[in-house]
Amino acid sequence: MRDRRARAAARLAALLAACGVLAQEPRAQPANAPQPIPPAPAGALAFVPPDRNAIPDTPLGTMIRFGRDVFVDTQRYAKGYVGNAMNCVNCHLDDGRQAGAAPLWAAYVAYPAFSARDERVTTFGQRLEQCFRYSMNGRMPPADSAIVLGLVSYAYWLATGAPVGAHLAGRGYPPVAQPALAPDAMRGADVYRLHCAACHGVEGQGVKSGSSYAFPPLWGPGGYNAGAGMHRVPTAAAFIKANMPLGQGGTLTDQQAWDVAAYVNAQPRPKTPN
Ligand code: HEC
Ligand code: HEC
Predict the structure, then answer these.
(1) Is the distance from the beta carbon of residue 136 to the nearest atom of ligand 1 less than 6 Å?
(2) For 23, phi and psi rounded to 5 degrees?
(3) Which of 73, 123, 227, 242 sits CB 3.0–4.6 Å from 134 for a disulfide?
(4) In ligand 2, which atom is closest to the CA atom of 86?
(5) Is the pLDDT of residue 64 over 60?
(6) Which of 123, 158, 193 represents a domain boundary (last residue)?
(7) How many domains does the chain have?
(8) Ligand 1 pocket, 225 CB below 6 A?
(9) Does residue 220 lie in a domain region?
(10) Does one domain contain both 87 and 150?
């Protein structure tokens, strides 16, 4: 019975492939795969967050500052909710201010939004859970904790003056064109050795300075887990193309960015939590 059904499914797949239907579908994603942020529409509004020293000296300002501390030194200020060696700022560069590195100001005004991964509408605060669970390999702090209030307050402040609901230019990562050749981890290993290993280590384990990391790990127990957005090769390729090597974003070719993303994501890392 099962055999017959499997054979029928295979026949149907072959038929659809012959019609070119499946050829357009990329590799099937599991239902709870992270959803990439849609690219900004043409003519999206440009936005500059407030000066970093302009946080007000008010009770709200104290909460905003605490949120920034959590974001930059998550290991210390959200200890117990982080299961790897990462800080939020390792991926959301320049304290979450950097356009093209999923900046917090562009995110803040884009919620509530439907999450295909969660199959529900989520608020900005609830969106943090995905990064705590997968990128940080940890767990979500309570919604009314100072950690969550601080992070939400910090993002709110960064978005000062931005229109609610706008898709701001610089949200997420700029899309990187499909490569001419299918992404290849073997070629990616060469890119890694030449352009990445000096900072992230030959074994991708990062480089420590004292008890904290000067350069974060890319894989191994200290890295993001297999359920993270960065574990999607297209997402990693887009982040890397725009932002790596640090300070030299845009210098790799599209092909190099895809290949090194395939290489990094072929390495061992913590499993997706159930
Ligand atoms: C390993 C890298 C990584 C780390 C660490 C990380 N994130 Fe993320 N984050 C991502 C990726 C990837 C996305 C989705 C970007 C995309 O798909 O374009 C994202 C998306 C987000 C978004 C939604 C952005 C938007 O525009 O909708 C928020 C908010 C966010 N992260 C907050 C955090 C916070 C807070 C932390 C720390 C607790 C954190 N992230 C840690 C990689 C990371
Ligand atoms: C000059 C040093 C340097 C080089 C070279 C460099 N990186 Fe990074 N990279 C960093 C630093 C530092 C961060 C964290 C930024 C922060 O915390 O502000 C980072 C963050 C990352 C992240 C997100 C955080 C994580 O650990 O997962 C990825 C992915 C990444 N780099 C990939 C690469 C790849 C691929 C290359 C080679 C093409 C590369 N980097 C080259 C310094 C570097």
Answers:
(1) yes
(2) -60, -30
(3) 227
(4) 26
(5) yes
(6) 158
(7) 2
(8) no
(9) yes
(10) yes
Q: Which residues line ligand 2 (CB under 6 A)?
A: 89-91, 93, 195-196, 198-200, 215-218, 223-224, 230, 240, 244-246, 252, 260, 264
Which residues lie closer than 8 Å to 228 by C-beta, 6 or more apart? Answer: 34, 134, 135
Quick one: 151 and 205 in the same domain? no
CATH of the domain at 206: 1.10.760.10
Task: Answer yes or no: is 16 within a domain.
Answer: no
- Span 198-217, mean pLDDT? 96
Say if CB 49 and CB 102 are below 8 A apart. Answer: no
Report the 10 Å Cβ neighbour count for 119: 9
Range of the domain at 191: 185-264
Q: What's the whole-model pTM score?
A: 0.91
Residue 234 structure tokens: 């297209």
Rounded Cα–Cα distance for residues 178 and 181 (Å): 9
Residue 140 belongs to a domain? yes
Mean pLDDT is lowest, of 7-21, 162-176, 182-196, for 7-21
Choosing from 77, 135, 173 the residue with most ligand 1 atoms within 8 A of its CB, the one to mutate for a pocket test is 135
Q: Is residue 209 part of a domain?
A: yes
Q: How far is the CA of 22 from the centre of ligand 1 (A)?
A: 31
